């Protein structure tokens, strides 16, 4: 799990890229990463879940709580879900229309491609 520099993104944007599995065992580390990113008070926090190979309700809760905190502080959280497990979970729960979703980046690797 890493913080990605803003690069060509608008100023005030921070991106947290989560990789591997996001479940109860990885939740503490993921929460620390998100809290570290939030500490700077970015106008937009992007949670990139597109590289996850697995996500369960712990990951969904992480995203929903980050979204709640951002709204309360007058900030935004957006999710990058890609086409893999994260998108399927958020879609199955009917959350795609309720959260800010940003498209995958052209150079993003799909989770199932990473093992080939």
Plain-language structure description:
The protein has 116 residues and is of the alpha/beta class. The protein has one domain (2-102): Transcription Regulator spoIIAA, CATH 3.30.750. Helices cover 32% and strands 28% of the residues. The chain is built from three helices and five strands. A five-stranded mixed β-sheet has the order 1-2-3-4-5. The protein starts with a strand and ends in a 14-residue tail after the last strand. The model is unreliable at 1-7 and 111-116 (pLDDT under 50).
Summarize the model shown.
With 116 residues, this protein is α/β, with parallel strands linked by helices.
Which features does this protein show?
32% helix; globular; disordered N terminus; 116 residues; alpha/beta; Transcription Regulator spoIIAA; five-stranded mixed sheet; 5 strands; single chain; disordered C terminus
Task: Describe how the helices and strands are arranged.
Elements: E1 2-4, E2 13-22, H1 27-39, E3 44-55, H2 57-72, E4 76-80, H3 85-92, E5 100-102
Parallel strand pairs: 2-3, 3-4, 4-5
Antiparallel strand pairs: 1-2
